[in-house]
Amino acid sequence: MKTKTLVLVNGILGLAGGIFTMLSGWFLLSSVARDISRTLMTNTVTTSSTTGLVSIVFLVKVATLILGIVGLNYYKGDTRISSAPHILLIVGGAVGIVPFLGFPGSVVAIVGGSLYLAALKKFDA
């Protein structure tokens, strides 16, 4: 019997990570503005906050892709969960990594995460 822990983790990551990456453009814009103002005030180039935020957003996108692949392999042949949530997380993570396609990738990841959480009911029965 397969456990429901991976379904829960993938569902939460799909929803929370998708929402985070959807809003990350605004976070990055404010981070760049802060770095520019620091550069102008101190006459030294600082990009530390932007670099850190870009790294975090990239790691969330890669984690979405990897957990979609892990879920596809782990729940292969399990009738309680279809292949749609796995495929949507994989596509959302892969499309999100492509520059300027982060918003469509995050929408697909949110849909995949919600399908994972909807399939969670079948594991309780």
Number of helices: 4
Number of strands: 0
Can you tell me the residue ranges where pLDDT is under 50 for at least 5 consecutive residues?
Answer: none
User: Which assembly state applies to the chains in this document?
Assistant: single chain
Determine the fraction of residues in helical runs and give it as a percent range: over 70%
Percent of residues in β-strands: under 5%
Q: What general form does the structure show?
A: elongated
Main sheet characteristics: none
Mean pLDDT: 91
Report the structural category: mainly alpha
Rg (CA only): 17 Å
The total number of structural domains is 1
Question: How does this model look, in words?
Answer:
The structure is a single chain. This protein has helices spanning 5-42, 48-74, 84-97, 102-124. The model has no long low-confidence stretch (mean pLDDT 91). The longest helix is centred in the N-terminal third of the chain and has 38 residues, at 5-42. By secondary structure, it is mainly α. Helix 1 (5-42) runs antiparallel to helix 2 (48-74), helix 1 (5-42) packs antiparallel against helix 4 (102-124) and helix 3 runs antiparallel to helix 4 (102-124). It has one domain (5-120).
What is the topological layout?
Blueprint: H1 5-42, H2 48-74, H3 84-97, H4 102-124
Helix pairs in contact: 1-2, 1-4, 2-3, 3-4
Keywords:
125 residues, mainly alpha, 4 helices, 82% helix
